[in-house]
Design brief:
Number of strands: 6
CATH class of the largest domain: Alpha Beta
Distance between the termini: 8 Å
Number of helices: 9
Number of domains: 2
Radius of gyration: 17 Å
Strand order of the largest sheet: 3-2-1-4-5-6
Strand content: 5-15%
Order of helices and strands: EHHHHHEHEHEHEEH
Largest sheet: 6 strands, parallel
CATH superfamily of the largest domain: HAD superfamily/HAD-like
Shape: globular
Structural class: alpha/beta
């Protein structure tokens, strides 16, 4: 039986991917690099190499900390501009009646806290697992395993909702059932191991969750 639903944040519950791209591309432009949408998609949506991988690729390995310091106020501004994805609040209310909910994100804790409090969803989650609590972000199953452990559950009792192949693979490696929600930057990306694929959050209902229990 499914006891908990584990949500990714950016691009799944919060419509933030385009805002983040603007902030990250502006940051790298300051350091002389034009970050294409394709490279951003690869390093932030597919491999999660992020700032480190991008800086190293462009000969900026010795400037990684400078890049992160420049980026921080731009990304903090994102937390003040983004909105929930369509049907996100309704889905959280609907699912919380019968399931524990948790948030699993590769974002930094102080960004996460600011966003979910402003959007009024902080109280929806039994646990929030953010980047500082795991070793390698979502390149490995660690964040989902950490969340499952906090919930006191077996992976088979959980469903993860993810919008990117890298995040979905992290959840799948942890043993979660995966509902894959490609959109925005990931709209054309396939994840063959998904248990369900949706085009909108309002497609998730008790019937789908119950089917995933079998």
């Amino acid at each position: 039986m499914i006891e908990a639903i584990l949500f990714d944040k950016d691009g799944t519950l919060i419509n933030s991917s385009e805002f983040y791209y603007r902030a990250i591309s502006a940051t790298f432009r300051h350091f002389g690099v034009e970050l294409s949408r394709e490279e951003y998609t690869e390093n932030w949506m597919t491999s999660f190499g992020g700032t480190k991988a991008t800086a190293e690729k462009h000969g900026l390995a010795d400037r990684i900390e400078d890049i992160r310091k420049f980026r921080e106020p731009l990304v903090l501004r994102v937390a003040e501009e983004v909105a929930l994805m369509p049907y996100a609040l309704e889905l959280l209310d609907y699912l919380s009646a019968q399931h524990d909910l948790a948030l699993v994100t590769a974002d930094y804790p102080h960004f996460v806290k600011k966003q979910i409090e402003r959007l009024g969803i902080a109280g929806k989650f039994a646990h929030v697992v953010a980047q500082s609590k795991v070793i390698d972000g979502k390149s490995v199953p660690d964040p989902y395993l950490k969340c499952i452990d906090l919930l006191g559950l077996h992976p088979s009792q959980t469903v993860a909702v993810e919008d990117s192949p890298a995040g979905a693979m992290s959840a799948k490696m942890a043993g979660c059932k995966v509902i894959y929600f490609p959109n925005g930057f990931t709209k054309k990306m396939k994840f063959e191991l998904a248990d369900r694929i949706i085009g909108s959050l309002d497609e998730i209902d008790d019937a789908m969750i119950n089917d995933l229990s079998e």
